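Chain X:
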Amino acid sequence: MKRTNRLLLLLALIVVFVISWVVVLGAKSPDEKQAELIGQATDYFNDEIYVLAAPILEEAVGYNASHTLEAENMLKRAYLQMIDQRGVRRDYIALLEKQMNRSDYKPEVFIEAAEFYLSSSKYIEAYAVLKDGIAKTQSGELTALYENTRYEYRMGYEIYDDVTQTAGATIGVCRDGLWGIAFSDGELFIPCEYDKVSTFRDGRAVVKKGGVIYAIDRYNNRLALLKKNASDFGNYANNRIPLLIDGKWYRATGDFGIGDTAYDWVGTLRGGRAAALIEGKWGVVDISANLVIPAEYDGVIIDELGQSYARGAVFMKQGNSVYLFVDGVQIGEAYEDAAPFGDEGYAAVKKGGKWGFIDISGEVVIDFRFDEALSFGQHLAAVKQDDFWGYVSMYGEIVIEPTFIQAKSFADGSAPVLTERGWQFITLLEYRTGGGL
């Protein structure tokens, strides 16, 4: 009996062993199982039954095997077919982020993510993905996509009869013959009730109303009253405002402490320097009225705010020629005309009847092909081609098509443009969404 039991036990062990080997030999590897699941999902794809393909692919993605990327990409396609269903958008974005955060990331996934966000008007996310992808991959295709989309803009609702050039993050605006001050995107914060306004700097502007000149703060509170009779004033900067008194120009502080030096004309300070006309000749003075470029020239190139100097550079005019001076030293060749440098390093200059751009060393960086041009601000410059104005990038490419009657420089992400309705403001989406430039 005992012998029989031992034989039965041995036979049972043999059976178990054989069954185990059959199971082992018949088991599929992760690669095989993943491939099988992908095959099943493909059948559903062919029939466009994505709701059944998705869970199969989710199982396939769970295997860490050689077909994982293929399964993920199929799963993303399935998600996109059901993107408006509850929870699918979240799952799709999570899968994109998983792929972008891998050590073997590829530019294609960043492009896919950016295009998805752009199509959904999620500009903050799109620009973040593009910048991250460019930093990680140095992809030229990603860079091109960024350059092609970073200049998308929206037109603001405010409309004005006239505007000044933007100064910092504010701009003078006019309605019905009266002036106020707006932020750079056109949003009014000082009402249009003045005969004239200066630039708004360091928390104040100088205004004129009913023949009275005084300074105001951003809430339109009066800060100081000019008690001396002045017939005109310039723009406020560096706690200085030019005043026209008895036919001569003087500089005063924001509280109207008037200096002693008289000029035939004096411009707005920028970079601690301003153009000055003295006894019929032009030079450049500093904030203390010292001449840093002698008053011996026929003219100085100034912008509409009276500014002439930036980044140590100024354009002086002698006869019919314009010359670049950097730190008081003449640089490069003569030009027919120019626009003062902005905060960035490219200035518009005219040669052979066309406008191009030079850098601070006088080297041509964008060739002479525009009918008119302004210097760069925030990586963009207003240019005129034929009858309309648009904007060119620092690479020399037109990135905002010439469709405007007139255009001014960008500042704080926005620029004033003249349309058939009047002066309106365009704001770059990248800037408006908080991404900066």
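Chain Y:
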Amino acid sequence: MLDYFAMSRLDEPTDYILYHTNIGEGLTDEERARIKSLWETDILGHACEMETSLFMACCPGKVKLEYAPQKTVEPLRRFKHLWEHGVHNALWWYADYPENVVGNASYASEEKGKVVLDIYVAALARAIKAVKEDKEAPRLQAEFSQRVRNKRAE
């Protein structure tokens, strides 16, 4: 959705460029390996060990792990018969995770979350530096806007 939203900002000329990031794409191989080494389970997603650990690091004392399922929640794959044909629908999440959780949050900890948060902060700092140094996006936006103006004038 963010890619679509960013592209929709080109509908009208602006004096700014909208950048967005997926921090996971900006991690180094070493950072990815460090993060992966933290987890007791391989299943990551909503309310999983990683997401819960991050929340615990950001909001200490707010997570009540006693409410987390004490087993690993794996996808039920109830739409496998559709997915193997490339068919999707709005119920995909519920079909896989009716309890609205993935993995096993009972392994989460504030310490693990702090490690990941520090890595994400470093990656975000690199992303901000790259944006500040970017000369190509402004050049291409000016070129794009000029081409649009020329087409409208025809």
